[in-house]
Design brief:
five-stranded mixed beta sheet, globular
Amino acid sequence: MANESTLRFGAQTDEVTSLLRIVNMVRTGEASTRPEIGRLTGLGRGVVTQRVDRAIEMGYLEDGEFGPSSGGRAPRTLRFRSELGIIVVCALGALHIHAGVATLDGEIVDQVHRQWEISRGPAETLDTVMSMIDEVLARVPNTPVWGVSVGLPGPVDFASGRPVAPPIMPGWNGFDVRRRFEQRFDAPVWVDNDVNLLALSERSRRKDDRIDLIYCKVGTGIGAGLLSNGHLHRGANGAAGDIGHVRVQGADVLCRCGKVGCLEAVAGGWALVRDAQEAMTAETTGYVAQCAAAGEAPTPEGIARAAENGDALAISLIQRSARVIGESIAALVNMFNPGVIVIGGAVAAAGELFLAEVRQRVYELSLPLATRDLSIVNSPDDVREPLRGGAELAREQLFEVTFPRWFGDGRPTIGAIRGAELEHVA
């Protein structure tokens, strides 16, 4: 049975609304003292004091050091108690798994990485993920898990947390990923496309809550995360940005999704590996030949790194991939008009060699107005980026979407979060 405090907070009175706003202002750094809160909210000094005291009593805020004086008595600063909980983050790719733990401020405090083929299926993969999380949790202070975010390399129905016909994830279609994590951690869980996490990481890194951005990940597959005015555009069924299965004119290669001529089948990482092996002859030298001699298959990142180091075959493969991908991105630019395009993923590890080809095609094929203020850049070469994005997803959902539902309880609960999600969808 809900206590009186929970019922009162659920009512969304003016008192509660202002209290929520004050906690979030301190949490985000928008305000750090009581006078600043008063100036920004328009609330009187007595009301601000009352609200802040209530937030301190509930455990969300605490007094910090004294701030600089503006002529009178120095005001005492406030801080959000980010140590109250932690966020567990998992980012699964086609060939790897990242798992880590973040504070409620979004700082990654520890992480682990492992090579892994997601085609091995959900049961074995999630068992491995759980063991990796346990490894990380054993190294951090024993703090309650307030939320979990999971990134998957395929379309996801965000409302249910289930993958939807992911082409490179056999056996995952409709699998209830969220439930496995909820049972393990007794905390709210959000599952999303991995490239959406990368887009959120870019938003956070640039400190621009209103950015119009496309994050294009070129790894084993190809996908795009779309930020419009700072908000993720997932589409009606979670398929927004799945440019890997856009048809390439004149292409007749069979894609793993069953269609013919998909961008991924022409220019994705697995297509590069296929083409590299087919192009190898007795005279071939360099990275691909070395892999063949060792009895190993080349990897998308290996081809990209080889191209960066001057390998002739790798360069030709990377440039061809970049040209075709640039054509598809140009269509997005004309339609979406972003201010920034970020290119990441294993294939994009070729750096400027890949980026230059993409830029050329985008500027050739896009409208001048759409490219007038457009910036096309590489993603930071940091394996923690998807983890940061996962932490951003959880923080956004906790404090900007569902906060009113669980605020009175002092910590998030699965029931409160699920109710807020259903209400938001309705």
